[in-house]
Automatic annotation (TrEMBL), chains A, B:
One of its GO terms (biological process) is regulation of secondary metabolite biosynthetic process. Keywords: Cytoplasm, DNA-binding, Iron, Metal-binding, Repressor, Transcription, Transcription regulation, Zinc. This is Fur family transcriptional regulator. GO terms for cellular component: cytoplasm. Fe cation binds at E105. Belongs to the Fur family. Zn(2+) binds at C90, C93, C130, C133. It is found in: Cytoplasm. Its cofactor is Mn(2+); Fe(2+); Zn(2+). One of its GO terms (molecular function) is zinc ion binding.
Length: 142, 142
DNA sequence: CCACTATCTGGAATTGCTCAATAAAAAGAG
DNA sequence: CTCTTTTTATTGAGCAATTCCAGATAGTGG
């Protein structure tokens, strides 16, 4: 199923901006809204910032994109949805890397005490220093 | 060890604002910067917003406070540091509840593929609906 | 009690994101 | 192919959280 079909299946209209956004996010590596906007403009010319935000929300709501928001960083988007994978975030440069779940499917989705909550998602973020930043010593690669 | 001693031990000066911040965060339930500022002012009169932010950073860096930042929410602080506990966040009202780790100590601290990262922390956030919001139907309690 | 420097103050600026009103364009009907 | 309806995009203002700057203040060690 291509992007246009996915959009239609989600009840969304197919526009150049949205196709470009999906493509940009797929190609990019956990881009933030600004990065997506820039990548999209490279593809289809002018697109307003609001259109990017709006589409990003629509696509996220439709389940075509996943939004992650590491502390201290603007929201980032990825196309890998539906599986239970987590993230490795570099404290120095902010790079986000996907990692599959250790325990299998939904590992930590069984908190000991749920305190009456209805839990629907377990989000795991590993914080550390990426290889590049380790090599660069204290220097930032951002 | 009282707060003043903890501050000194961390090489920080003891000021009324900082003691009030530590107390406010301890009493409060995962307060955000604004909530801390208000609680602090209740205790010691006027304190500038910057002093609050600055102190919060200093205290966090010193390990006296832990900062958590659930997606879509301003940063929140808690005094429970040093143990491997996680958080349950309500999608409706944003309330944060502490939960101990399922697997024991540092459960998820063993990602399958580390991709060369030096991991120093595993952060787990469970998303769901708190009991109060479930009872209130779709209504927000925020 | 002094000097030194961490800390606090006040104000302005930045960033990331949202709201509102109008114009444009995709989908379906005829 | 054209028209109509409804979604989507544009422009521009607005907001919240946080940070930066420069100068005043107050802990601390001596």
């Amino acid at each position: 199923m291509d992007d246009a079909a996915s959009l239609r299946a989600a009840g969304l209209r197919v526009t150049a901006a949205r196709l470009a956004i999906l493509d940009a996010v797929r190609q990019g590596d956990h881009l933030d809204a600004d990065g997506v906007a820039r990548a999209v403009r490279d593809r289809v010319g002018h697109v307003s910032t609001q259109a990017v935000y709006d589409s990003l929300h629509a696509l996220t709501a439709a389940g075509l994109l996943r939004r992650i928001e590491p502390a201290g960083s603007p929201a980032r988007y990825e196309t890998r949805v539906g599986d239970n994978h987590h993230h490795l975030v570099c404290r120095t440069c902010g790079t986000v890397t996907d990692i599959d779940c250790v325990v299998g499917e939904a590992p930590c989705l069984q908190p000991s005490q749920m305190h009456g909550y209805t839990v629907d998602e377990a989000e795991v973020v590993f914080w550390g220093i990426c290889p590049a930043c380790q090599a660069n010593g204290a220097e930032s690669t951002a």
